[in-house]
């Protein structure tokens, strides 16, 4: 059984194992020096590659870690923490991710009628991860 923190970005639900979550904050100053993962592009407006502006002050951020790396995910809100059995996490069908340049999801599970895509933190952080 794993504990999954479920969060929203837009209308979509995503999950991350709580073991990888260091903190959740609304303080944009606290995350300004931490890297954003590739999938965050477009969620935060940029003026220069190293400056985040506009939407940062409106968002919550999950500060997560994997091995020795830390990163920040801008989110729209926290849903809840769910205990999920490994057997309830199923692979994502190939057709659902065929247009993704990088496949960084571990699997999917259902919370009621809503599907939750679980982020594979290792693949998200390491560019050389298997697609």
Give the arrangement of secondary structure elements.
Layout: E1 2-9, E2 12-17, E3 21-25, H1 28-31, E4 45-46, E5 52-53, E6 60-66, E7 69-75, E8 77-84, H2 94-97, E9 105-111, E10 114-119, H3 121-125
Parallel strand pairs: 2-10
Antiparallel strand pairs: 1-2, 1-8, 3-6, 4-5, 6-7, 9-10
Give a written overview of the molecule.
The protein is mostly beta strands and 131 residues long. The protein has a single domain, classed as SH3 type barrels (Roll), CATH 2.30.30. The chain is built from 3 helices and 10 strands. The chain has helices at residues 28-31, 94-97, 121-125, and strands at residues 2-9, 12-17, 21-25, 45-46, 52-53, 60-66, 69-75, 77-84, 105-111, 114-119. It has a 5-stranded mixed sheet. A 3-stranded antiparallel sheet has the order 3-6-7.
